[in-house]
Amino acid sequence: MTTSSSIIIPADEDARIAAVRRYEILDTPRDGAFDRVTELAARLFKVPISIVSIVDEDRIWFKSRHGIEVEQVGRDPGLCASAILHDRSLVVADASVDPSVLANPLVAGEFGLRFYAGAPLTTWDGHSLGTVCVIDKEPREFSDGDVATLEQLAAIVVHELELRLVTRRVVESERQTRALEAARRGLEAAEHERTRWARELHDETLQSLGALHMLLVSGLARPDELDQTVSEAANFVQDEIVKLRHLIAELRPAILDQAGLEAALASLARKLSVVDGLDVALHLETAHVTSSLSANAEGTLYRAVQEALANVAKHATAHNVEVTVRARGRTVEAIVSDDGIGFDASLNTDGFGLLGMRERAVLAGGTLEVRTAPGAGTTVRFVMPLDAADPSQNLQGPSSP
Ligand SMILES: Nc1ncnc2c1ncn2[C@@H]1O[C@H](COP(=O)(O)OP(=O)(O)OP(=O)(O)O)[C@@H](O)[C@H]1O
Ligand SMILES: [Mg+2]
Predict the structure, then answer these.
(1) CA 119 – CA 10 distance, rounded (Å)
(2) Ligand 1 proximal residues by C-beta, below 6 Å
(3) Mean pLDDT by 10-residue block, N- to C-terminus, for the chain (401 residues)?
(4) Residue of the nearest CA to atom 25 in ligand 1?
(5) How many angstroms separate the alpha carbon of residue 343 from the centre of ligand 2?
(6) What separation in Å is there between the alpha carbon of 207 and the centre of ligand 1?
(7) What DSSP designation does 28 have?
(8) What is the CATH number of domain 13-172?
């Protein structure tokens, strides 16, 4: 077959090489599944050498080899390169008397090959990737039955390759589905967040501006009380500025940048005790935490505690709440625990708070645990790695308390 030094190229070579690449098998480590085939072939046919070969552009690479040390040979002298030119197996019973392979370096050279039988690894779309071949330095008889057996072994190898390809595709498609689902939920959360801020601006700011307008209009009807009207309006505007500042602070907690994580968490706790009348115990061990967290990761942690505390104020009817933030090995954990009414976590709700927290945890490579039951209080544990990838794509702001 390969009597010249030039490589013999199959007619479908480009498509064939594409098929070889498709299986992502080249240069992969040794593998029991293929090694079993070569060992079995050597034993079945009582030959010293057996190979599962893949014919690459300019080399023949051995996925599995029994009885031979080399891992690959050039495509040039390759009998396997010849074997893939045919649909059927290539059998050279005695190379010393076969003019088609006499000049082959493996036959003529030191190696002294005398017997070769190779069955092509033919894919479902008709491309030959390589062979399962058996080799001996003695001439041999190889019956039609032997050829059929060798071809069965080749079919097993192709089946294994197909199975791995399908498995890879299923895994990849599941990964894509999960990514799509995360993106969809992110969009949904962002939409929910916009709705919430629209509601907030409508219910708070717009109502207040309406009331201020009324105050000023009614003042116009009482020109003799202008001083009093202006003074009331000024106080009103001042109150609104304070409220608006709170709203803005919720959107972007400037306190984090200005005063740091510990002060920002302390301020959240203060609000809960002053405004909501809860007894708050704060255990913050954040010195090591802040030195290892990016600004965005700090924001993620802060948002988690903020949402958990907002939930306590909104839903728990609790008396006491405990907030712990501390490093634990290479992770940081934030635990918010209340003695309130608890809830059935298996029930779906319309809320986005816990969902957003969970998504933030996952984005940062961490976890969210919610331990609760009706009447048994609630403990929320948010964990993320200290060297967390920057979870800068925060999906959602916190809920208003
Ligand atoms: N600490 C808690 N105590 C009691 N119930 C809680 C507590 N935290 C959450 N829940 C319950 O879990 C539900 C889901 O909470 P989640 O934060 O996801 O949504 P939400 O607070 O209702 O709405 P949102 O956060 O979107 O404004 C709440 O509606 C509430 O019933
Ligand atoms: Mg909530």
Answers:
(1) 16
(2) 311-312, 314-316, 338, 340-343, 349, 351-355, 378, 399
(3) 52 92 95 96 96 93 93 79 81 87 78 92 94 95 96 97 95 91 79 77 82 89 89 90 78 75 89 87 85 80 91 94 93 96 88 82 89 95 77 39 36
(4) 353
(5) 13
(6) 26
(7) P
(8) 3.30.450.40
